[in-house]
Amino acid sequence: MFCPNLAHFELSPKRSHINKQLVYLLVHLLFLLTFFTSSPLVASAKEGATVQIAETSEAVTVPKFVTIPVYYATDREEQGQTFGTRRRYHELCEHELYYGTAFVTVPNLKKKVLNEKLKNLNWQAADHKGGNISKKDKIDATHPVMAKENFIHRVKMSLDKEALDEKGKPQLCLFVHGAADAFEFCVEDAAELAYYMERPMVIYSWPSDPHLRGYFIDSTNIEWSQKHFNMFCSDLLELKRERPVDVICLSHSMGNRLVIRALPVVYGKGLIADWEMISPDIDADTCRHYMMGFTQPNAKIRLYVSNKDIILPFTQMLNGGYYRLGEAANPAWDRLKRDKAEYLERIDFTLIDKGWYGHSLPFELVANMVDLDKPGEGYALVPETSVKANRVARFAGRSERLSATSGEADFCSKLVRSK
User: Fold this and answer.
1) Which residue spans within 234-279 are E strands per DSSP?
2) Structure confidence at residue 386 as a pLDDT band (50, 70, 90)
3) Cα–Cα distance between 378 and 352 in angstroms, integer?
4) Of 308, 352, 305, 349, which is closest to residue 330 (Cα–Cα)?
5) Residue 347, SS3 per DSSP
6) Cβ-proximal residues to 1 (8 Å cutoff; 6+ apart), any chain
């Protein structure tokens, strides 16, 4: 379709008003001529007008940021309006947690409109990101029993407004973060997961240090936190008995140690309906020990790995050269698949792993797999029978049987872009 370029019209100061009117009249005449002579273009014009209206409407109603509540339980040391890297109890642990709600602001990347469902989840529109420390509604820890009851009540209230799943139960997300994460980074990750999951989000935060040099301290602290996490799982089981709920467990990196070691507590209780294990930093054979003797659970389990990840090969070297469960090229899988392939799905998300060292959280992919059992628009999962280990992984496994290509279990799928 011919359309005059207004930039080519040179307007003199004296006659600019008249010339502009003539130009716009010409443009409108050409448009009307096209309208009556070309029906396909008419449809295109109409569609374009509709999109423009929709975009104009969204520009008014779509917030730039959204503030999402994250219900937290932590055994970190309290530090002002946040929590630090050390344990709540330096000695003579009394096994009590701090509870509360953190209101975390995240970018509205998907341009979501705050509909009734999101408002019921207490999402709020925001104009800016906010400070480094999130606003919190802390529960008074003076009386531990009352504090726990108050926290459970908050979670119940969020479930009362949550949409039901196909089984007629509300769903609750439980996020357990990894090592080298400050509390505020952890609740931000939880909020980003909640943004894509669109469900109430609970985080269990253990005392991890945001510096890599504190890796071995984190390994000690997460072991110290195990009893507390087991007790927290028991509290969720009590909640489930009072208020039927399906828990979606989302565990990242070293945080998987807490969840795997809690299997004797939660197994067979029906607490976890869906378990998303992301880049787990735990000895692969140790994981097998915890899973031995357990028959197939009534839960969907997905394991996300990335060959871009150089953190896990590094931690492999720090732990005597023994393979980590979340490594993409891992010979241990050949031993594991015989028992667990029936219900364990392994997904290679190298394609979208972020950062130069990988080990990121694929927020949207995880949410799509939970909701749709598919990776989402523009992506597909294809069978993957072998993985070429990256250089760091080959160096880390040089004393073992790791070759350039490591045989993988037949339940491994690779994320690719769909055509």
Assistant:
1) 246-252, 272-278
2) confident
3) 12
4) 305
5) strand
6) 34, 38, 41
First to last CA, the chain: 30
3-class DSSP state of 45: helix
DSSP 128-195: S---SS-EEEEPP-SSHHHHHHHHHHHHHHHHHTSPB-TTS-BEEEEEE--SS--HHHHHHHHHHHHH
Are 193 and 367 contacting, i.e. CB atoms less than 8 angstroms apart? yes
d(CA 272, CA 268): 9
* β 272-278/300-305 pair status: parallel
CA Rg, the chain, in Å? 26
Q: What is the pLDDT of residues 35-84, one digit of tens each?
A: 444 433 333 333 333 333 344 444 558 999 999 999 999 999 999 999 99
Copy the structure tokens of residue 314. 């590094």
The pLDDT value given to residue 22: 42
Q: Alpha-carbon distance 367 to 371, whole Å?
A: 6
The pLDDT, as a whole number, for residue 419 is 78
Residue 236 to residue 26: CA distance in whole angstroms: 70
Q: How many CB atoms lie within 10 A of CB 363?
A: 19
- For residue range 95-149, list pLDDT tens digits in order: 999 999 999 999 999 999 999 999 999 999 999 998 899 999 999 999 999 999 9
User: Alpha carbon 358 to chain centroid distance?
Assistant: 15
**Axis crossing angle, helix 215-224 with helix 311-318, rounded to the nearest 10:** 80
* pLDDT value, residue 161: 75
For position 399, what pLDDT does the model report?
A: 55
Domain ranges for the chain, please list them. 6-58, 66-417
**Does the pTM exceed 0.70?**
yes
Which H/E stretch holds residue 77? strand 76-79
* Residue position matching structure tokens 């950062």: 355
